[in-house]
Amino acid sequence: MDLELQGQESNVGDFRADMLCRNAADGSRVLIENQLEKTDHSHLGQILTYATGLDVHAVIWIAKTFREEHSAVLDQLNEIAGEKFRYFGIEIRVWQIGDSTPAPQFEIVSKPKNWRRTISRKAQRAASKVTLEIQLQLEKFWTQWSDYMTQIGNPLKYPQAGPWSYLNFEPERYGREFYIDAYRIHEKKEFGFGLYIGKASFHLLKEQQEEIEREFGEPLEWDEDSQRRSPAIFLRKTNIDLTDETDWPNQHEWLASKLKLFDKVFGPRLKALKRKGGL
Fold this sequence. Notes:
Helix content is 38%, strand content 29%. The longest helix is centred in the C-terminal third of the chain and has 28 residues, at 248-275. The chain has 2 domains: 3-113, Trna Endonuclease, Chain: A, domain 1; 127-277, Yope Regulator, Chain: A. By secondary structure, it is α+β, with helices and mostly antiparallel strands. A 6-stranded mixed sheet has the order 1-2-3-4-5-6. It is built from 7 helices and 11 strands. Strand 10 (221-223) and strand 11 form a beta hairpin. Mean pLDDT is 78; it is low at 126-130.
Protein backbone atom coordinates (compact mmCIF):
# COMPACT_ATOMS: atom_id res chain seq x y z
CA MET A 1 0.00 0.00 0.00
CA ASP A 2 1.16 3.53 -0.83
CA LEU A 3 0.17 5.55 2.25
CA GLU A 4 -0.10 9.28 2.88
CA LEU A 5 -0.04 10.52 6.49
CA GLN A 6 -3.21 12.38 7.49
CA GLY A 7 -2.82 12.73 11.22
CA GLN A 8 -1.13 11.56 14.41
CA GLU A 9 -2.62 11.00 17.86
CA SER A 10 -6.15 11.29 16.41
CA ASN A 11 -8.83 11.42 19.12
CA VAL A 12 -11.40 8.64 19.38
CA GLY A 13 -13.37 9.10 22.61
CA ASP A 14 -10.90 8.89 25.49
CA PHE A 15 -8.22 7.28 23.30
CA ARG A 16 -5.75 8.56 20.71
CA ALA A 17 -4.87 6.59 17.59
CA ASP A 18 -1.16 6.68 16.74
CA MET A 19 -1.27 7.33 12.99
CA LEU A 20 -4.08 7.84 10.51
CA CYS A 21 -3.17 7.48 6.82
CA ARG A 22 -4.82 7.57 3.42
CA ASN A 23 -4.40 4.79 0.89
CA ALA A 24 -3.33 6.64 -2.27
CA ALA A 25 -4.74 3.87 -4.46
CA ASP A 26 -8.40 4.23 -3.45
CA GLY A 27 -8.59 7.05 -0.89
CA SER A 28 -9.58 4.74 1.98
CA ARG A 29 -8.34 5.33 5.52
CA VAL A 30 -5.65 3.20 7.14
CA LEU A 31 -4.92 3.07 10.87
CA ILE A 32 -1.41 2.32 12.17
CA GLU A 33 -1.09 1.44 15.85
CA ASN A 34 2.39 1.03 17.38
CA GLN A 35 3.14 -1.06 20.46
CA LEU A 36 6.85 -1.58 21.17
CA GLU A 37 6.20 -4.49 23.51
CA LYS A 38 4.26 -7.74 23.47
CA THR A 39 0.65 -7.33 22.33
CA ASP A 40 -2.05 -7.13 24.99
CA HIS A 41 -5.84 -7.17 25.23
CA SER A 42 -5.98 -3.44 25.88
CA HIS A 43 -4.41 -2.53 22.54
CA LEU A 44 -6.57 -5.08 20.74
CA GLY A 45 -9.66 -3.37 22.10
CA GLN A 46 -8.26 0.03 21.20
CA ILE A 47 -7.62 -0.78 17.54
CA LEU A 48 -11.15 -2.14 17.18
CA THR A 49 -12.47 1.08 18.73
CA TYR A 50 -10.30 3.20 16.43
CA ALA A 51 -11.34 1.22 13.36
CA THR A 52 -14.99 1.99 14.06
CA GLY A 53 -14.59 5.57 15.26
CA LEU A 54 -12.28 6.67 12.44
CA ASP A 55 -14.04 4.77 9.63
CA VAL A 56 -10.89 2.98 8.46
CA HIS A 57 -10.72 0.15 5.93
CA ALA A 58 -7.36 -1.25 7.03
CA VAL A 59 -5.64 -1.64 10.40
CA ILE A 60 -1.88 -2.15 10.77
CA TRP A 61 -0.90 -3.21 14.29
CA ILE A 62 2.87 -3.10 14.90
CA ALA A 63 4.37 -4.70 18.01
CA LYS A 64 7.59 -6.24 19.30
CA THR A 65 5.94 -9.65 19.70
CA PHE A 66 2.47 -10.94 18.90
CA ARG A 67 0.71 -13.26 21.30
CA GLU A 68 -0.67 -16.27 19.46
CA GLU A 69 -4.23 -15.46 20.49
CA HIS A 70 -3.95 -11.91 19.11
CA SER A 71 -2.65 -12.98 15.70
CA ALA A 72 -5.45 -15.57 15.67
CA VAL A 73 -8.00 -12.79 16.30
CA LEU A 74 -6.64 -10.80 13.35
CA ASP A 75 -6.79 -13.89 11.15
CA GLN A 76 -10.40 -14.45 12.18
CA LEU A 77 -11.29 -10.80 11.54
CA ASN A 78 -9.82 -11.10 8.04
CA GLU A 79 -11.87 -14.23 7.44
CA ILE A 80 -15.18 -12.59 8.33
CA ALA A 81 -14.48 -9.07 7.05
CA GLY A 82 -13.93 -9.98 3.39
CA GLU A 83 -12.15 -7.52 1.12
CA LYS A 84 -13.73 -4.37 2.55
CA PHE A 85 -11.71 -4.43 5.79
CA ARG A 86 -8.14 -5.64 6.23
CA TYR A 87 -6.15 -6.34 9.37
CA PHE A 88 -2.37 -6.69 9.50
CA GLY A 89 -0.19 -7.80 12.39
CA ILE A 90 3.49 -6.84 12.06
CA GLU A 91 6.40 -7.60 14.36
CA ILE A 92 9.28 -5.12 14.44
CA ARG A 93 12.81 -6.46 14.83
CA VAL A 94 16.38 -5.21 14.68
CA TRP A 95 18.76 -7.15 12.43
CA GLN A 96 22.52 -7.05 12.26
CA ILE A 97 25.16 -8.90 10.24
CA GLY A 98 28.61 -8.90 11.79
CA ASP A 99 29.66 -5.40 12.79
CA SER A 100 27.19 -3.66 10.49
CA THR A 101 24.86 -0.95 11.81
CA PRO A 102 21.69 -2.44 13.34
CA ALA A 103 18.65 -1.85 11.15
CA PRO A 104 14.90 -2.25 11.76
CA GLN A 105 12.99 -4.94 9.90
CA PHE A 106 9.26 -5.66 9.81
CA GLU A 107 7.78 -9.15 9.60
CA ILE A 108 4.12 -9.76 8.75
CA VAL A 109 2.59 -12.28 11.16
CA SER A 110 -1.03 -11.80 10.13
CA LYS A 111 -2.54 -10.56 6.87
CA PRO A 112 -5.66 -10.98 4.73
CA LYS A 113 -5.80 -14.33 2.98
CA ASN A 114 -4.16 -14.26 -0.48
CA TRP A 115 -3.30 -10.56 0.00
CA ARG A 116 0.19 -10.77 -1.56
CA ARG A 117 -1.04 -13.06 -4.31
CA THR A 118 -3.85 -10.62 -5.19
CA ILE A 119 -1.43 -7.70 -5.34
CA SER A 120 1.05 -9.72 -7.38
CA ARG A 121 -1.55 -10.82 -9.90
CA LYS A 122 -2.76 -7.24 -10.37
CA ALA A 123 0.80 -6.08 -10.91
CA GLN A 124 1.39 -8.90 -13.35
CA ARG A 125 -1.69 -8.06 -15.40
CA ALA A 126 -0.81 -4.36 -15.45
CA ALA A 127 2.76 -5.10 -16.51
CA SER A 128 1.78 -7.66 -19.13
CA LYS A 129 0.11 -5.54 -21.82
CA VAL A 130 0.86 -8.08 -24.49
CA THR A 131 -0.99 -9.72 -27.31
CA LEU A 132 -2.89 -12.97 -26.95
CA GLU A 133 -0.16 -14.73 -28.91
CA ILE A 134 2.51 -13.63 -26.45
CA GLN A 135 0.28 -14.55 -23.51
CA LEU A 136 -0.04 -18.05 -24.92
CA GLN A 137 3.72 -18.21 -25.39
CA LEU A 138 4.29 -17.07 -21.81
CA GLU A 139 2.03 -19.77 -20.43
CA LYS A 140 3.65 -22.39 -22.64
CA PHE A 141 7.16 -21.30 -21.63
CA TRP A 142 6.44 -21.33 -17.89
CA THR A 143 4.62 -24.65 -18.12
CA GLN A 144 7.58 -26.25 -19.88
CA TRP A 145 9.96 -24.74 -17.34
CA SER A 146 7.79 -26.11 -14.54
CA ASP A 147 8.11 -29.57 -16.08
CA TYR A 148 11.88 -29.11 -16.42
CA MET A 149 12.21 -27.97 -12.80
CA THR A 150 10.25 -31.00 -11.63
CA GLN A 151 12.66 -33.27 -13.49
CA ILE A 152 15.82 -31.77 -12.00
CA GLY A 153 14.48 -30.95 -8.53
CA ASN A 154 13.43 -27.50 -7.33
CA PRO A 155 14.83 -25.82 -4.17
CA LEU A 156 11.88 -23.43 -3.93
CA LYS A 157 8.14 -23.91 -4.06
CA TYR A 158 7.21 -23.45 -7.71
CA PRO A 159 4.24 -21.13 -8.41
CA GLN A 160 1.48 -22.00 -10.83
CA ALA A 161 2.39 -21.29 -14.45
CA GLY A 162 0.21 -18.89 -16.40
CA PRO A 163 0.11 -16.22 -19.14
CA TRP A 164 1.94 -13.54 -17.18
CA SER A 165 5.37 -11.97 -17.30
CA TYR A 166 6.26 -12.61 -13.65
CA LEU A 167 6.31 -15.73 -11.49
CA ASN A 168 6.50 -15.12 -7.73
CA PHE A 169 8.50 -17.51 -5.58
CA GLU A 170 8.02 -17.18 -1.83
CA PRO A 171 10.91 -18.97 -0.08
CA GLU A 172 9.18 -19.31 3.29
CA ARG A 173 12.21 -20.98 4.83
CA TYR A 174 14.01 -17.62 4.62
CA GLY A 175 11.16 -15.49 5.96
CA ARG A 176 7.93 -14.11 4.56
CA GLU A 177 9.50 -10.72 3.84
CA PHE A 178 11.74 -12.16 1.08
CA TYR A 179 10.59 -13.40 -2.31
CA ILE A 180 12.00 -14.05 -5.76
CA ASP A 181 10.55 -13.21 -9.17
CA ALA A 182 11.39 -14.97 -12.39
CA TYR A 183 10.33 -12.76 -15.29
CA ARG A 184 10.17 -12.44 -19.08
CA ILE A 185 9.57 -9.08 -20.78
CA HIS A 186 9.06 -9.45 -24.51
CA GLU A 187 9.15 -5.73 -25.23
CA LYS A 188 12.65 -5.48 -23.75
CA LYS A 189 13.82 -8.87 -25.04
CA GLU A 190 15.04 -9.88 -21.61
CA PHE A 191 14.40 -12.38 -18.85
CA GLY A 192 15.91 -13.07 -15.47
CA PHE A 193 15.41 -12.96 -11.70
CA GLY A 194 14.76 -10.37 -9.03
CA LEU A 195 15.23 -10.90 -5.29
CA TYR A 196 12.87 -8.49 -3.48
CA ILE A 197 13.69 -7.52 0.11
CA GLY A 198 13.07 -4.75 2.61
CA LYS A 199 15.27 -1.66 2.63
CA ALA A 200 17.04 -2.58 5.85
CA SER A 201 17.93 -6.04 4.55
CA PHE A 202 18.96 -4.57 1.20
CA HIS A 203 21.47 -2.23 2.86
CA LEU A 204 22.89 -5.03 5.00
CA LEU A 205 23.39 -7.25 1.96
CA LYS A 206 24.76 -4.34 -0.07
CA GLU A 207 27.64 -4.15 2.41
CA GLN A 208 28.60 -7.64 1.21
CA GLN A 209 28.19 -6.86 -2.50
CA GLU A 210 31.78 -7.64 -3.46
CA GLU A 211 31.77 -10.99 -1.67
CA ILE A 212 28.32 -11.92 -2.97
CA GLU A 213 29.19 -11.15 -6.58
CA ARG A 214 32.44 -13.07 -6.26
CA GLU A 215 30.47 -16.12 -5.10
CA PHE A 216 27.93 -15.55 -7.85
CA GLY A 217 30.64 -15.34 -10.49
CA GLU A 218 29.20 -12.25 -12.18
CA PRO A 219 27.96 -8.75 -11.30
CA LEU A 220 24.41 -8.23 -10.10
CA GLU A 221 22.16 -5.20 -10.42
CA TRP A 222 21.42 -3.61 -7.03
CA ASP A 223 18.28 -1.52 -7.38
CA GLU A 224 17.06 0.32 -4.29
CA ASP A 225 14.20 1.95 -6.21
CA SER A 226 12.86 -0.89 -8.35
CA GLN A 227 9.59 -0.60 -10.27
CA ARG A 228 7.83 -2.56 -7.53
CA ARG A 229 8.81 0.04 -4.91
CA SER A 230 10.76 -2.56 -2.96
CA PRO A 231 14.55 -2.81 -3.17
CA ALA A 232 15.65 -5.67 -5.38
CA ILE A 233 18.73 -7.48 -6.63
CA PHE A 234 18.50 -8.46 -10.30
CA LEU A 235 20.22 -10.83 -12.68
CA ARG A 236 19.19 -10.20 -16.29
CA LYS A 237 19.79 -11.82 -19.66
CA THR A 238 19.20 -9.30 -22.45
CA ASN A 239 18.92 -9.11 -26.23
CA ILE A 240 17.20 -12.49 -26.38
CA ASP A 241 14.52 -13.50 -28.87
CA LEU A 242 11.95 -14.79 -26.41
CA THR A 243 9.67 -15.99 -29.21
CA ASP A 244 12.28 -18.45 -30.54
CA GLU A 245 11.01 -21.71 -29.09
CA THR A 246 14.08 -23.60 -30.30
CA ASP A 247 16.10 -21.60 -27.75
CA TRP A 248 13.71 -22.25 -24.86
CA PRO A 249 15.61 -25.31 -23.55
CA ASN A 250 18.70 -23.09 -23.15
CA GLN A 251 16.61 -20.47 -21.37
CA HIS A 252 15.07 -23.12 -19.10
CA GLU A 253 18.53 -24.38 -18.19
CA TRP A 254 19.84 -20.86 -17.54
CA LEU A 255 16.89 -20.00 -15.29
CA ALA A 256 17.23 -23.25 -13.36
CA SER A 257 20.97 -22.85 -12.80
CA LYS A 258 20.65 -19.21 -11.70
CA LEU A 259 17.76 -19.99 -9.37
CA LYS A 260 19.93 -22.66 -7.75
CA LEU A 261 22.74 -20.10 -7.47
CA PHE A 262 20.41 -17.54 -5.89
CA ASP A 263 19.45 -20.18 -3.33
CA LYS A 264 23.09 -21.11 -2.64
CA VAL A 265 24.48 -17.58 -2.35
CA PHE A 266 21.60 -15.73 -0.71
CA GLY A 267 19.97 -18.56 1.24
CA PRO A 268 22.46 -18.64 4.16
CA ARG A 269 22.52 -14.84 4.33
CA LEU A 270 18.74 -14.53 4.44
CA LYS A 271 18.61 -17.20 7.14
CA ALA A 272 21.27 -15.29 9.09
CA LEU A 273 19.19 -12.12 8.87
CA LYS A 274 16.19 -14.00 10.21
CA ARG A 275 18.17 -15.58 13.08
CA LYS A 276 19.56 -12.21 14.15
CA GLY A 277 16.08 -10.66 14.26
CA GLY A 278 14.62 -9.46 17.52
CA LEU A 279 14.78 -6.39 19.72
